[in-house]
Specification:
alpha+beta; 35% strand; Immunoglobulin-like; 20 strands; Rossmann fold; globular; 342 residues
């Protein structure tokens, strides 16, 4: 099968973690996605929750082995010259499913072809092949220029640590515990007294408790600026519902460039939610609210694949009444907005 030339690159990406309705959680994973013809390859797989083998949290030896495999400096892990392109974000078990492809050299070029979904060592292209994807021919120099530097750099991850500022240690402790279950480091402090610059530079986000006055918030921001901690995100209006606040922090920590995001907008208008996506992907939309006894109520509004564009999704009566929030999750991003009575 012939293949036309296309461009190859890498870009930071993430599979968002989060505390889900019902208490379940999913782990956050940072990884490098494959940029094919200027577009993330994962975006072509609309209903796939997966990460590439170039994940930031794998040991250096495994990371190096994955890079050498893609460069064909190591043998394929699967029969017929097949390499794993995307796998399960929770484990390394092939039984969970993986997107694989044959990688071959053709002169100085690298060719990716015969993409398939596999849960066993042998691929069935007739039944599980991705017939609309590939083959791709990458110029050898461009391909090696993207991958070879990783052998020296090794895995790397952005700052995945958040500082929770407030006096209510018990309430913040529940948030910190939830964040740690999805591999986000969390510390609690009433203020930044005696905090060193090196310590402050470890944080990617700060979430303020609702009782922290504005002058104290300004002092925190000034301390981070003086420490040279750039790019720190601040959550100024934390939700009083743990899964929602976790989602707010996840969004604050997201460093994905805007042009690489599929889930780009979320709003509530009347009795409907407006969701905007830039390419086909699975969206889960959940409404959270506090009842009169301050108990958390969660309602799944939507779970399905949306095509590119703006979509209007009906909200059930009472889903966003009172103090409520909507959380929209795509595989690699999350958005939060306030609910409004219909």
């Amino acid at each position: 099968m012939s293949a036309e030339y296309t461009t190859f690159g890498l870009a930071p990406a993430a599979r968002t973690g989060g505390v889900l309705a019902g208490g379940a959680y999913q782990v956050h994973r940072d990884f490098l996605d494959f940029i094919v013809d200027g577009r993330p390859l994962l975006f072509r797989l609309s209903d796939l929750d997966a990460v590439s083998p170039l994940a930031a949290d794998v040991p250096p030896a495994i990371f190096t082995a994955q890079v050498r495999g893609l460069l064909l400096e190591a043998g394929p892990p699967l029969p017929d010259g097949r390499y794993i392109i995307y796998g399960c974000p929770e484990c390394e078990d092939l039984a969970c499913g993986a997107v694989t492809a044959v990688i071959r050299r053709d002169g100085d070029d690298y060719v990716w072809r015969d993409f398939a979904w596999q849960t066993t060592p042998d691929a069935d292209l007739t039944r599980n092949g991705y017939h609309g994807i590939g083959p791709f021919r990458f110029p050898g120099a461009e391909y090696r220029a993207a991958l070879a530097p990783l052998l020296a750099q090794g895995p790397g991850a952005p700052r995945r640590r958040v500082l929770l500022i407030g006096a209510r240690a018990a309430a913040l402790g529940r948030v910190a515990a939830a964040l740690r279950t999805i591999d986000i480091g969390a510390d609690i402090a009433p203020d930044l007294a005696d905090a060193s610059a090196d310590e402050l530079c470890q944080y990617g986000a700060v979430a303020f408790g609702p009782a922290v006055p504005e002058e104290a918030r300004a002092a925190v921001r000034a301390a981070f600026t003086a420490a040279g901690a750039t790019g720190v995100a601040y959550v100024d209006e934390p939700a009083p519902i743990v899964p929602v606040l976790v989602a707010q922090i996840e969004h604050a920590l997201d460093r994905t460039p805007a042009e690489r995001r599929r889930l780009t907008a979320l709003a509530v208008t009347g009795a409907a939610a407006g969701v905007e996506v830039t390419s086909p992907c699975r969206i889960r939309l959940t409404a959270y609210r506090l009842d009169r006894l301050h108990r958390t109520r969660a309602h799944q509004v939507f779970d399905g694949v949306l095509e590119p564009g703006v979509h209007r999704l009906a909200l059930a009566a009472g889903a966003v009444k009172g103090r409520s929030y909507l959380v929209a999750r795509a595989p690699e991003s999350v958005l939060v907005t306030h609910g409004k009575p219909g």
